[in-house]
Amino acid sequence: MKKRAITLILLAAFVISAMSACGNNDTPNNDTEPTATDPSETTPDTAPVEALEIPDVKYDDYAFRIFTRPGDRYDEVYTETENGEVLNDAVYRRNAIVEEKLGITFEITQSSADWETEALNSILANDDEYDVIIPAARAAFIYAQNLVCTNWFDLPYVDLTKSWWNQDAVENLTINGKLYVCDGDISPATLKGSVGMIFNKQLLDDYKIDYPYELVTSGKWTFDEFSKIVKNFSQDLNSDGNMTIDSDLFGYASSPWCGPINALYCTGERIITVDKDGYPQLTLYSEKTVDMYDKYLNLLYSENGYNAVDWREAEAFCDGRVAMIDVDMRAIATGTMREAKVDFGLVPWPKADESVDKYYSYVDAGHSLWIVPITNPDLERTSVILEAMAYYGQKEIIPAYYNITLQNKYLRDDESVEMLDYIKDGGVFDLGYYNDSQFGGGLANPGYNLVNNTTLTFTTLYNQYEQSVKTLIEKSMKVYLED
User: Fold this and answer.
1) What is the pLDDT confidence band of residue 468, given thresholds at 50, 70 and 90?
2) Where does 173-312 have alpha helices with state H?
3) What single-letter DSSP state applies at residue 463?
């Protein structure tokens, strides 16, 4: 199959791990000297990565203070020791490289809640406690609306045009030239939070249905093609006359926080689009989104679909009773699907139709975004450290997650591995979805609202909240228009 550029870059990144000796001058350093690698991990078919350009400095064992969430969100950023697990050791190795190169140590504080805003009060009190804060995406915008975030464009050595910073996030979360939250290869959170679909190979084999890989690579993997597949599957297996997820066969099942949300993004549309002047515009409603939600809800509520408000879709899939479900990459690597016995394949969420330019996938609002608080005492030092963390994250952490943790351990065939390219490439950062308190309002989760209130249509939901959301945007923009 045709190789895509992102695969080449990531393979190159896994092979080439650059480290340079540090001096004491302030001239930019193009960091490209490779370290030794296992010959079994090398490949002659590689592409160069961009150069890291930061001052060649040491910071006298400065403790770089990070405030983050517990559990695997903590593990995305820091680990104390190597333990033989590929991703754990890549995080450790990245941090060790940055510590050695810049003469720093990492000091990590864990919050006590997953959707925390615990650091907000200390910033409002003008206390210098943390250099960076890494909350959930939705929580991040609570910090932003309280005006306690540094503009990422004011960080002198962070180059937001580089590939280790997510370009969709930079473009679509910047408001009037102000980017208060950011994301990139500094951690694997973006890919972990991106959504695709998995299918039961045995069920498709039994029904003599071709796997949809070729449809994906040819650009023809559309919702209509997806519907053709799942409409083959509907069977009352226990013959009780009642179709239930516990005992019967379905073509497709989804939870309220997954497919119903991506039914919007597969059209190429967004809730909020930032215009050329940096002003957020409500762009949710269009003929394409209305048509897409009609199709999606009709399928979900048909005999072939199941709306898993009980969150049972993954369990039913693993039991062989659902042909296709949507799932984020985090679930494949660390969640329900990690130990699944069923043989499955991975594809991106389908396009609404062939006119959409790529396979879009929203990045879940529970994933992490990075904030530099206004109490940070040294933006130059912080920018150097963040740039190095992201650069070496692209070279160490992302390849480990992408090429080994997912590809070799959990995905079951080469075609599924290639599908990761499409999912990573199509990640969507929608200001309206993440920031309901300032911009999205009652329209921040249209799909979720529709499957939890079946009396609504997409049009009635939109009409109900259109004016209040526009008023909310106008009110919120007063903050972002200030100098």
Assistant:
1) very high
2) 189-192, 201-206, 213-217, 223-230, 259-265, 287-300
3) H
